[in-house]
């Protein structure tokens, strides 16, 4: 029996996880399976122990895989082996004593507010349905802070024109309400009129391609990368960079941390606090560059202390 396939059906049907999440689990589990079979072609899941998992982790690290990627894969494995225990395939979970590799704290990548203004105000988009859609995708990421899965999954009926709100489906199938301003409202309404003409429906997928079907993950990522390349030289040019930009701009302009947490759909304010560190770093740079006495920048120790107080 292919336990990976039965597990994938379980998390898709019984747990209702998204197609993107299911594919991520599949990639992680198949990678482990290939490694185990390369060690012993007769090996099955009942014989996998913590030492074999540790060998796989060491192999991943030797291959240059980032610790954060390994941590995510280990999360997939933990869920999978709990499933095997639940199904009485194994009696001992080999993941119980496997720690996550340590990862250095990384600040999120984001664009400057001026770069986003340049993108939305000065860059010329094609005067076509797709050109207007692409600009709206960028605006929605920047002005609503959505994840890519949330944007792609948005339906027309999830938009409240009376209240200027989006109802989005986030992680763990949790809904949240995200407000939007008049500029985005006008762009959404203009696009929606064209979308309805193209699809022949007032409901259904909101962001569609030129054939009138729901936009795909890869299509949206290509769109974001193409246009961000016009305004920034940073290597990371993804939808999540725009989500980080949304949070950073809000905090730089005085938004409450708890409010930003709710807008992003974070479970804990601790997750949102990384943006506090980011914005304080920006303040340090501005102070060092603009103050007439040009005092030295705070030491890393002082910076760490500030992060703990945030």
Short description:
The protein is mostly helical and 310 residues long.
How would you describe this protein?
By secondary structure, this protein is mainly α. It has 13 helices and three strands. The protein has a three-stranded antiparallel sheet with strand order 1-2-3. The longest helix is centred in the C-terminal third of the chain and has 22 residues, at 269-290.
Q: Main sheet?
A: 3 strands, antiparallel
Distance between the termini: 51 Å
Structural class per helix/strand content?
mainly alpha
What's the number of extended β-strand segments? 3
- Which sequence of SSEs, written as H and E, runs from N to C? HHHHHHHEEEHHHHHH
List the uncertain runs.
295-310
Instruction: Name the helicity range.
Output: 55-70%
Please name the defining characteristics of this protein:
three-stranded antiparallel sheet, 13 helices, disordered C terminus, 3 strands, 58% helix, mainly alpha
Topology (elements, then pairings):
Blueprint (H helix, E strand, L loop, with lengths): L2 H12 L4 H21 L10 H13 L4 H20 L26 H9 L7 H16 L3 H5 L6 E2 L4 E5 L5 E5 L2 H18 L17 H12 L10 H14 L4 H8 L4 H22 L9 H10 L1
Antiparallel strand pairs: 1-2, 2-3
Helix pairs in contact: 1-2, 2-4, 6-8, 6-10, 10-12, 11-12
């Amino acid at each position: 029996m292919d336990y990976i396939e039965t597990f994938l059906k379980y998390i898709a049907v019984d747990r209702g996880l998204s197609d993107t999440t299911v594919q991520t689990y599949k990639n992680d589990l198949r990678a482990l399976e290939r490694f185990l079979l390369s060690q012993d072609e007769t090996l099955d899941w009942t014989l996998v122990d913590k030492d074999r998992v540790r060998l796989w982790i060491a192999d991943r690290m030797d291959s240059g895989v980032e610790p954060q990627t390994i941590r995510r894969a280990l999360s997939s494995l933990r869920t999978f082996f709990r499933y095997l225990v639940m199904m009485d395939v194994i009696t001992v979970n080999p993941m119980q004593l496997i720690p996550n590799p340590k990862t250095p704290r990384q600040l999120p990548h984001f664009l400057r507010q001026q770069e986003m203004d340049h993108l939305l105000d000065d860059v010329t988009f094609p005067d076509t349905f797709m050109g207007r859609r692409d600009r709206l995708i960028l605006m929605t990421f920047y002005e609503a802070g959505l994840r890519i899965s949330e944007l792609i999954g948005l339906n027309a009926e999830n938009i409240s024109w009376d209240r200027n709100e989006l109802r989005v489906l986030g992680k763990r199938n949790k809904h949240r309400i995200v407000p939007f301003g008049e500029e985005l409202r006008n762009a959404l309404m203009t696009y929606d009129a064209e979308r309805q003409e193209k699809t022949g429906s007032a409901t259904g997928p909101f962001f569609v391609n030129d054939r009138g079907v729901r936009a795909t993950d890869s299509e949206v990522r290509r769109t974001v990368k193409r246009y961000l390349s016009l305004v920034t030289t940073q290597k990371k040019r993804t939808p999540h960079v725009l989500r980080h930009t949304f949070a950073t701009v809000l905090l730089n302009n005085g938004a409450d941390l708890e409010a930003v947490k709710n807008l992003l759909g974070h479970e804990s304010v601790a997750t949102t606090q990384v943006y506090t560190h980011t914005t304080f770093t920006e303040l340090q740079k501005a102070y060092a560059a603009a103050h007439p006495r040009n005092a030295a920048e705070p030491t890393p120790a002082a910076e760490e202390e500030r992060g703990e107080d945030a």
